[in-house]
Amino acid sequence: MTAKDTPQGRILAAIDLGSNSFHLGIARVLDGSIQPMHRMKQRVQLAEEADEAGNLHPAAIERGVECLRQFSQRLNEMRFDEIRIVATYALRQAPNRREFIRQARQILDHPVEVISGREEARLIYVGVSQNQSLPFPTLVIDIGGGSTELIIGQGHEPRQMESLNMGCVSYQSRYFSDGKISPKRMRKAILAAEQQLEKLQQRYLRQGFHATVGCSGTIKAIASIVNDGDLSLPVTLKQLEKLAKEVVECEQVEQLPFEHLADLRRKVLPSGLAILIACFRQLEIDQLEFSEHALREGVLSEMADEVLHQDVQKRTIGLLQKRYQLDRLHSERIFASASQLYHQGQLGPKTHLSWLGFASALHEIGLQINYRGIHRHGEYILTNTNLPGFTLEEQQLLAFLVRWHRKKLTGCEPPKLQLMDGEAILALLLPLRLAVLMHLGRRHHIPLPKLQVKKRTLRLNFGDNLREDDLLATDLELESQHLAELGWQLEWH
Question: Does the record bear Cell membrane in its keywords (predicted)?
Answer without folding.
Answer: yes
